[in-house]
Amino acid sequence: MDILWQYQFRIILLGDSTVGKSSLLKRFTDGIYSDVADPTVGVDFYARSLEIEPGVKIKLQLWDTAGQERFRSITTSYYRNSVGGLLVFDLTNRKTFEHVREWHREVSEHVLPHHMVYILVGHKSDLGRDRKVRREEAEDLAAALGVRYVETSAKCNSNVDRAFELLTRDVYELMKMGEISTREGWDGVKSGLSAKALYPAEQEEEEAAAQREKSCNC
């Protein structure tokens, strides 16, 4: 029986209303874009699988959260079950950029004592003439938060896949180092039926050495 995925990561999109979270997800999962988008009510779900390296497929369960304050009590319940988050702001709306730190702080507080892996996304890069946030400013914020920064456009399909792939790869690399692992009662990371074991590098070397020694003694 073919296994569809070895790991499942739950990823949440965060940011103010109208920054284009739903547009990013629809472009990434369905390859479509529409100029007309209904506001997200509560939380919507999307999914797509990525082959992060040969033989390792990761299913992304993607949560699109409402940016409006009145839905905040609903969306906060989803924070703790996510391993990664895209902090999205609108390059043409400076207030959405200024609110990024608030989103980051709120989510980080809810997931304590654990941490979430983030990537900062400046969306609507196709609207260059209306730009209100300089790239240097966004890169400085990303550096302050200790995260990567990517500029995207769902309309032009620019860097959309790259944003999700970078975040997925960051989570995967932390798993390989042993800093993120599956745990009881948490759905941020789940293992498939044929999960490829991930170990910290030193433990992996010890395992390989033990196998070599065993084969020599046969």
From TrEMBL:
Provide the alphabetized UniProt keywords: Autophagy, Cell membrane, Cytoplasmic vesicle, GTP-binding, Lipoprotein, Membrane, Methylation, Nucleotide-binding, Prenylation
| GO biological process assignments | autophagy; Rab protein signal transduction
UniProt key word Nucleotide-binding: yes
Q: How does it sit in the membrane?
A: Lipid-anchor
Q: Where in the cell is it found?
A: Autolysosome membrane; Cell membrane; Cytoplasmic vesicle membrane
Return the NCBIfam families for the record: small_GTP
Q: Name one Pfam family in it.
A: Ras
Supply the name of the protein: RAB42, member RAS oncogene family a
| Any one GO CC term of the record | cytoplasmic vesicle membrane
Originating species = Anguilla anguilla
SMART domains hit by this protein = RAB, RAN, RAS, RHO
Which family does the similarity line name?
A: Belongs to the small GTPase superfamily. Rab family.
